[in-house]
## 1
Amino acid sequence: MFKRSKDNKIERNQISYHSMRDTSLIRLFILPTIILLVVINVFPLFWSLILSFSNYSAKMLTQWGENPEMIGGVNYSRILADPDMWNKFITTAKYVLLSVGGEMILGFGLALLIQLKFKGREFITTLLILPMTMSPVIVGLMWRLFYNPNWGMFNYLLGLGRIDWISDPSRNLYSIVIVDIWMWTPFVMLLSIAGLSAIPQYLYEAAEIDRASWWSKFRRITLPIVYPILLVALIFRTMEAFKIFDLPMGITGRGAMAPPLIAMHLYNISFVTWKTSYGSAIGYIILIVIIAITSIFIKYLNKAKQ
Amino acid sequence: MKKVSLWLVILVITVSMVAVFSLNGCKKEAAPAEEEAAPAEEAAAGEQFITIHWAQWAPADYLEKLSKGFTTETGIKVTVEQTPWETFVQKYNTEMIAHSDAWDIIVGDSQDIGNMAVNGHYVDLTDWIIEHGVDKTFTPASLTYFAEYPKGAGKYYAVPCEGDGLAWAYRKDLFGDPDNMAAFESEYGYELGVPTSWDMLKDVAEFFHDPDNGFYGVAIYGDNGYDSLAMFAEQCIWSFGGELGDYSTYEVDGLLNSEGAIAGIEYYYDLFKFVPPGFGGAFYLETNDAFVSGIVPMSCNYLAFFPGLANEETNPYAADTGYFACPPQKGPDGVERQFAALGGQGASVVTYSKKQDLAFKWLEWFVKPETQLEWARLGGYTCNAEVLASDEFLSFTPYNPTFKKTMEIFKDWWACPEYDELLRTFSEDIANYVVAGNGTAEEALNKCVEDWEEIFGAAGYYD
């Protein structure tokens, strides 16, 4: 193994051919992960980018020049000129606004309540986070049963009669918003609790001495300190809500009466009608929109940190 | 430790790579572990086996049961791998795109035959079908719709496996109730009974529709995620004298938006007023559920889902349930027509299968008249003309006579490779009118004509 000199010290500059340094070892250990990432993430990302500039259907035989046929930015211009696509983006934005808005208000409100000292606080906290621990597909299917207008529990418990929450296009967007809020409010609540716990108690004590009102303490102490962590929750939830797929798939299915959400449309284009290149272009537009929105939030987050 | 043996590192990397590739070898999300393990064990034991892929429903169970006879005869084991209907077509399309040899036979949707044939996923069975006399022993319509592509070209890619079509179930007790009969006759001027026309069917639905008491006129498809709404709509179009288009020239203008087609879609819209709440998302499960829970007097479904209605364990009204085929109807042109939408699938040999010889052996066994009779006895819908015509077949289930009638009047959707795009646009356009109530039937069909001409144009059919 290691060569030793006459005084029995290891000669570090005389490494045998089958030994190696720490850095090489680290690289070798990382290599399988890197290869996997390249094969599973990076290559498809670039390949789909190339496909988005072509006319290609994965269902049809691959014949270079015909399928795929490079057509430049035609897919992008078609998508941006399609009023139906804009309608889908507007509906998705509406969904994001309603669901994330609801989650932020309710989640933060619940966190403030949980901060109060009362009996059974830990138990209630555990109960509240249960929806978040469930699989979104199962949640979707479960709520589909709750929403059934003929025998579902939702209408029955609220005394609403036989309202169709699933296939009525004027209503089913809100039925998914309700489930999203039910499922992900605990996530905002948990992050908010973490933020609230980090506020030093002496700030409130000082405010008490100054006879500050509850609202004044909330506005000048609580909110500014919790604000960065609320922004983190906002970033995560916005990204997730924008590309929501599993809940609507479970609740309304992918039919024409399902709410025109952009991720559902992407699925139908790519895997139902097999317009692979057109679907890739939609995917890239979604990616750009999400990056743009997230960048704005991150800018505010950095400001808040400063 | 600053330096380590290169051999140790190579060993770690090799183990990692083996683990990764083993995971990959664990086969997509596919079937349950037991099903995946079974062929592997058989392969290890040197046993011969084939795997058939089909949708997850009762006929697939019947086929596996039936194939035990084949195993007894030949020693070749048969596994029928089932995928839920919601993802069935996508799953086998994805596997075929990847040239997968996971299955030796696919019992695929009839409308997908063009896609599979054009892209070379199915083996051309033309010579085999002629050699084994399938063209003479199976009904011509079943060969056309389940096996042939292009239609009329005499090229076959499947053996008709499960014949199926849309038909009706009704409550004999409600239809035969003297009070109902008297009330119906005084309101509509004719006797209540099994509908003899689509117009009468609508009258019956209207008569029974009583939403204030939680009872509704009819249970029909409204879901448009795959082909359910389209299949009901197409039989309305055909029955009223319209067409989906010319299957040989791909012309649609003047056919899909003809007077008859508009009347058919208007009829669908009118009939949809009598469905239970939430039926905008209804497919086979919801229609059967509505019937067995006693909230509708009649429902339309694929015949393959009727065993649940005839079974007293799943339908408390089973003893009072009757069945009828889609009725005839006079169109705006005064001509009477009778059509039903085709369901069902053909069995095709996968091009990428490494056990095609075994797959052909199974097909050879499957088309034998005695196997077809046994297939029918178990609950499968045979397309063998002789078996279909036998009194024995008609007595197997209470709905087999309805199946026989349906087999005489069925017609299918487009079978070209673009069928799924046509399905998607048609479903969206028609659902927008029938389910959401936007616009008129004429506007919906004109929009569909525009969409379809664009699809056919892009595919080069008009060049």
Note: Residues 22-37 of chain B have pLDDT under 50 and may be disordered.
## 2
Amino acid sequence: MIDPALITNNLIDGVLMGLLYSLVALGLSLVFGLMDIINFAHGDFVMIAAYTTWVIAMMLYVDPSVTAIITVPLFFVIGLAIYKIIIEPILGAEPLIQIAVTVGLGYVLQNLALAYFRAGPRSFPAPWFNYSIQIGPIGIAVSKLIAAAVSLASLFIINYMLVNTKFGLAVRATSANREVAPLMGINVRKVFAITFGLGIALTALGAALYMMWGQTNPYLGQSFSLLSWVIVAMGGLGGVMGVLYSGLIVGVLEALGSTFVSPSARLAVVYLAFFFILWFRPRGLFGRR
Amino acid sequence: MEFSKAVRKDILAVIALVLAMAAIPFAIGFERYYLLILSTATVFAIYVVAWNIIGGYAGQLDLAAFVYSSLGGIVAARLMVYYGITPWIGMFAGAGVAAALAAIIGYPTFRFGIKEVWYALLTASLVVIVREIMHMPEFLGSLDYRLPWKYMGWYWLRFPTYEQLYWVLVAVLGATMLINVWISNSKIGYYLKAIREDELAAEALGVDVRKYKLIALVTYAAILGFAGYLHISLNGVYTYKNFDSAQSIAVAIMGIIGGLGSIAGAFTSAITLKIVGEYLRSSFGAVIPGLHLLIYGILLIVVGIFKPEGLASVIEWFKKKVGWGGEG
Amino acid sequence: MAEPILKVRDVVKRFGGIVAVNKVSFDVNEGEILGLIGPNGAGKTTLFNCITGVYRPEEGHIYFMGEEITGLPPHKIAAKGIARTWQKTRPFQKMKVVEAVMVGALLRTNDVTEARKRAEEALALVGFPREKFYVRGSEITLLEHKMVDLARAIATRPKLLLLDEVAAGLRPGEMDQLASILKRVNRETGITMIVVEHVMRFVMGLSQRMLVMHEGRLIAEGTPEEVANNPKVIEAYLGTKPE
């Protein structure tokens, strides 16, 4: 029999991680829903941002979460540049070509990181929030709690923005009909670029939060990429709420896999669920389209 | 069976290539290190040319190559070590098991219309799932399994020097290419190419899309499952880590760089990238680890953006230039 | 009169709350060219998609040569002898023209050489220029694309051919050319045709009998003259583009 306190601990951990996954996946979902771009390198931006966070945190000797003030705008700009150089030329290309190009981009990012930082894991040695709240046998890591809270707040802010701002309206109009949007005075290319930049900026926020306790290595992005895609697949398209629920499900599945199968098999459990969701609910659990 | 002129030309080109490759060990004086690299490159050429069936003709971005090759290889290795069955039989068993897994995965996948990005993700997930299942103590656990030294010689397809295995690999590569030539010039090939271009239009012309995708997937898996043992024999060891995501993606990458649907492109791309990669790794690996992968990445981006037809278009141009036909 | 080749009975197809095809019934007689007209959004293409198995109708039955084909997948319907073309051509861009048509021919033969011969015949039948047989799909004009689409469908040796807005995007001169091709194909092969069109002029000269759809329903049937003078038809077209 597995200790109920352990299960509870793992489940809480799963929920907190799930919120962070939602944050990271949101950018991917927006980009895919808006411009049909299949980005297989999404997670690799988390990895590059995690290194950037680490470098800045070490330089200033502040907690990684603080570096978001620098990395989020920086990665927004990087996102714009990547959009211009790599994404715009493959808009409307067949899926296989898009996958190929973004897999190539992922390879480039991974191996740049490998060349510069080598394979060893990097983490910040003096995190500020390295303690946990104990409630009887149950402990909650404060750093993860903060990360989850910031993620949740960001999701709601973006949701608010999509529903209530002029930019949000432009995004939704362009998602709904790319041919008609320009007739309404929307600069489609600009909307695309900003959305892509935003998506990459969100990966930087996710990375800064993750580095509060986590460590990065050149291959960190691979699991983030796959997990983000799993969340997009489950969530269907477009909706922030779909991404939020799917992220939570992924986090909880991971916790269950970790508890009942083995910690190393936790991703396999998520992917197995992904298989069955794709087979039986091809439009996602909360999906439209 | 009657072959058209183009097919006959392709078959002759494959035979010429096999003979030329078989002669290489003599040219390099049976140097062990070079033979090892050459053999590894040939293994990848088999995988990539086989991948061309599902990826190039059918247009499904399969990222699970090492599931099928490792599964087939391990089946053959286990049959050898545990039951004393020769890999000459074991490799067919491995092909059968890999094909069966492909059918089990492929049937519902194609039945539910999963394609494009979702197919790629599904197959990428498959690698992780199978690896973790194999990682469980009931299966392979965390151990390294070395093939015992007592199994040596042609009966076991294990050799103290590399050239014999290399020749076997070249023969398998030749067979894989001939299977490609046959598919490409048969009803299956035309149907797969039509599916790749436009599934709905193909279906309205009477193409049973699911059936032909499944044929492509199972054929590809069977070839990989068959060749898997040779890969293990080359390395002398297998573990759950053989179910490798990065290597599986590498197979697809080489296929794309080679040019979808081009046998010559797939072959050239696999051999060149693997040999150049190995050269870069041995020369610069200490200074810039991952340089060869960095170059693969840049090549992929460049090919994707500027030359989606891949290396094949370069080969095509070259053939026109020198007025030489051949497989393509 | 002989048994109709196609019988459509009370077919209903809904999308969400919209009824795209509403209790449609009609017969198609062997050998005829039947015109099916109606303004944009009348449900013509949806009806085609129900007949060819792209959609499964919610209600109703479709019989082809006395056999029920309702809800069969497209490839089985093609095998039974119904072929189609698409409103927006769906070319196999990277294949050569002959190869694309061979895909159709391979439905009735497994022999590639024989399929090539039949593909060339089908292309010749629709008047596709011989010197372009071996260029790629990406290098031909719109009219030629329509010819390839047509040849591809004919190569499956259908009994019934559904043409979805074949004239769309063509210049008037090209339309006349296409109309005479269709008449010739009908005469030489005896293939029954249903021609969907919202350009009335094109169908008028082509078909002996016409059906008119409006908002998912059949509202009129008759000879081109009868239909053109039917007040309901005129009303349906008023306010839309009459052309």
Note: Residues 125 and 137 of chain A are 27 Å apart (CA to CA).
